[in-house]
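Mods, move this if it's the wrong board.
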Amino acid sequence: MGMHSVPAKARGIMVVRADASGDITKVLADLQKDWQSFKETQADKDKEVAAKFDDVVTTEKLGRIDASVSNLQAAVDQANAKMAAMEMNGGEAGERDPEYSASFRSHMRKGDVQAALNKGADDEGGHLAPVEWDRTIINRLVEISPMRQIADVQKVGKSGFKKLINQGGTGSGWVGETDARPETATPTLTPFTLGNGEIYANPGATQQMLDDAEINLEAWLAGEVDTEFAEQEGAAFVAGNGTNKPAGFLSFATGGANAATNPLGAVEVLPAAAVDNITEDELLDLIYDIPSSYSAGARFVMNRKSMGKARKLRDSTGRQLWQPSSQAGQPSQLLAHPLTELPDMPDMTTGAMSVGFGNFKRGYLIMDRVGVRILRDPFTAKPKVLFYTTKRVGGAVIDPRGLRVLQHA
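Not the wrong board. C-alpha cells:
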C-alpha cells in the first residue's frame, strides 16, 4: 500500500504509512487525537466568525489538522480493506492443480508449452491463469476497489448472468384448524440479465527479470494489473452505462441510462437544495426514505472532497455528524452509519448526484467470470515480453428499493 503524508507538520500530525507492518493501534490513537484537535480548532474558528474576525493562523491550522484526519482515516480504511481481502479467501491454501501451476509458471518465464498447459488453453488465445493467481488478483482488487468491499460479488463460469426477481403476487390467508386450504396466487418472477465487459492490462517484463528465480511471478502480475483493473472497475461500478462494461448504480437512478431496465424500478433520487453542499436534514431524508428492512446494512458513499465537507457538518447542539474509526475493521461513521469513500462519485456541484446511501450488499451485484486470461507476447515490444491480461466483469443494481442518491439543485 502507499504512503500518505500531510503537506505541513503540526502538533499531533504524523506521516502515515498504511502497510502490513504498520501499527494500526497507533494510527487509531493518532486519529482520535487529531479529531479532538480538529473539533477544538473548529470551535475557535466559530468564535472568530461570531466576532467578525478571521485569523489566518487558525484557518491554516484547521486545514492542516483536517488533512491529517483525512490521511489517518485513509490509512485505517486501507488496513480494513486488507483485512477484508484476507478474510475473503480464508481457508483456501495450497495449489489446486500443482501440475498446471508449474506448467503455467514455466510458460510465463520461458514460453514453454507443456502438455499440462492445454488444460487452460483459451479459444480466444492465451491461457487461463491458475486459480491461485486469479485469487491473488481479486484480493488485490478488493483492497483498492471499494465497491467490491460493500457490494455482493457472484462468481460465474460463463458470459452473462440471469437473476429471477420476485415482484410479489403470492397469495395468503387465514384458516381454521380443519378448514380447506385453497391454492393461492403464484408469485411473479421476472428475469433480469446482467452482461459483462472485458478489462485488460498489458504489463511488460524483460526476459532477464523473468529468468530471475527469486521473482514471484504471481505477485508481480497482480501488482502490475491491479491498479488498471481497479480504476476501470471503480468508474464503471459507479457510473458505467452497461455497454461492454458494468452498469453503475448511478445509471439506475431516476433519469439515468438504466433507470427503466430493472423490473423493480429505478433508484430514487432525493434533492439537495445547495449546488455545492449538503445539510443534516438532507442526509436524514436519505436514511429514513429507505424501507426499514434495508437499514441494518445501509451506508453512505461519496468521494474524498465530499467527505471533507461532511466532516464539518454539525447538529443543532454543535455535535459533529462525522465520527472517525475507533477500532480496526470499523469504518468512519456519518450519522451513525458507515461511510465508504468511492473516488468516482461526482463532486458536489450543480446537478450532480454526489451522495449515495443504502444497502449495497443487497442492492448491487458484481459478477466475476471465473478466470483471468493471459497471452504471452515476446514479439511486439522486444526486448520486453508483454503479458496481455484480461478479465470479464459485470455489475448492475439488482434491488433498487434499498438505495437512494442525493442530487444537487
